[in-house]
């Protein structure tokens, strides 16, 4: 990850060989949020490739796209949190604090950290990066 995310960023490290970074992104059934998440994933893939990092961004909106049809929001959120907990870090997209799902993901990451001592890299994406 790039450390120059500004003063709002928080960093928690799980280990030296981080590979999978979860994208916590507001959705709410809005297509523009899905497009924004895809754009953010593309930006970070390019950044990490340029930096020579072999990291994968995990976008739950894309990951569950084929199975989400017919599932209620709470079920999808539980699936997303389970996916998040398999990752080494979390990127919070702009607007995450206004999203019930993103706030729950943040809570669960902190809870797992407190419960088992695992630490996760967490950073907020600056709005100007994705504008």
Overview of the structural elements:
The protein is α/β, with parallel strands linked by helices. The chain has one domain. The chain has 5 helices and 4 strands, in the order E-H-E-H-H-E-H-E-H. The protein has helices at residues 31-50, 60-63, 73-84, 100-116, 127-130, and strands at 20-24, 56-58, 89-92, 121-124. It has a 4-stranded parallel sheet. Strand 1, helix 1 (31-50) and strand 2 form a beta-alpha-beta unit. Mean pLDDT is 77; it is low at 1-15.
List the topology elements.
Blueprint: E1 20-24, H1 31-50, E2 56-58, H2 60-63, H3 73-84, E3 89-92, H4 100-116, E4 121-124, H5 127-130
Helix pairs in contact: 3-4
Order of helices and strands: EHEHHEHEH
Proportion of residues in helical segments: 40-55%
Please give the alpha-carbon distance between the first and last residues: 19 Å
Give the strand order of the largest sheet, numbering strands 1, 2, ... along the chain: 2-1-3-4
- Which radius of gyration do the C-alpha atoms yield? 14 Å
The global form is globular
Q: How many helices does DSSP assign?
A: 5
Please indicate the percent range of residues in DSSP E strands (runs of 2 or more). 5-15%
Q: How many beta-strand runs?
A: 4
Total number of distinct structural domains: 1
The largest β sheet comes out as: 4 strands, parallel
**Kindly state the mean pLDDT as a whole number?**
77
What's the short story on this structure?
The chain is α/β, with parallel strands linked by helices and 131 residues long. Helices cover 44% and strands 12% of the residues.
């Amino acid at each position: 990850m790039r450390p120059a995310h500004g003063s709002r960023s928080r960093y928690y490290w799980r280990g030296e060989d981080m590979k999978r970074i979860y994208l916590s992104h507001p959705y709410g059934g809005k297509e523009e949020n899905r497009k924004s998440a895809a754009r953010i994933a593309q930006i970070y893939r390019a950044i990490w490739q340029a930096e020579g990092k072999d990291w994968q961004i995990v976008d739950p909106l894309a990951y569950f796209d084929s199975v989400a049809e017919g599932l209620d929001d709470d079920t999808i959120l539980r699936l997303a949190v389970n996916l998040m907990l398999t990752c080494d870090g979390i990127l919070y997209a702009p607007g995450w604090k206004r999203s019930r799902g993103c706030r729950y993901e943040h809570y669960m990451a902190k809870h797992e950290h407190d419960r088992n001592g695992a630490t996760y890299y967490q950073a907020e994406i600056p709005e100007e990066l994705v504008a």
